[in-house]
Amino acid sequence: MAIMGELSDIGLPDLIDLLARRGQTGKLTVKADGQEIHLYLANARIMFASTTDLTLRLGRMLIKHGIISSQQLLDALHEQIERQPPRPLGTILLKRALVSEEQLGRCVRDQCVEILSRVVTAQHGMFLYVDGVQVPANLEVVELDVGDVLAEAWQRVERLQYLRNLLPAPSAPLMINERDPGAFNALHRDEQDVIRLMRGGAMSLMELSSQLSLDEMTLGSAILSLRDRGALLALAASESG
Fold first, then answer.
1. Do 68 and 181 fall into the same domain?
2. Which listed residue, 11, 50, 166, 206, has the most CB atoms within 10 A of its CB?
3. What is the pTM of this model?
């Protein structure tokens, strides 16, 4: 059984809740706001979530949380490709003792919440639900309560909107404040990435987003932190030319 429809007819949260309450097992694909997400459902639980947004891949999430390094991720991905049949990335990392089950579970949950928060408010888009589809063997299976994950996704949407209200306009130029060397002490890794990229000159939030592999909330939080400590200055458009 397959069901296709428009998000203008039924909101994504209502659709997921309906499928969960019916105890459906299958795959839900959603295309909205320039993204495509895939949710696997079973027994009123979300079993796996993925997206076309590369910043939300599990490996990137583990790096973001400081659990593994980029090289460790590359080594694990190489093993995943070489081994037949392929195993889930999390299983490989657990065997290598690079992550704990608690760390892995937390990142998988955070990944799912972040993925849903990107499209949970979408009013336009397409969905396709195919009944009976199971999670592929090479993917990380989780069991997340639908209601809890949707509630967390909404909370993240609200936090992101609050963050946007504090940030400069996406096209507003930003520059490093070289007059205050002390502002660059003990920077977080994400803040270091921003400063490193901006050493070449003024950049806007939009330009930083296109060149850094950081999700919107992580980048926005880094910009606000750097601005509050005096490491970044917002320029008037005429000053950047």
1. no
2. 50
3. 0.76
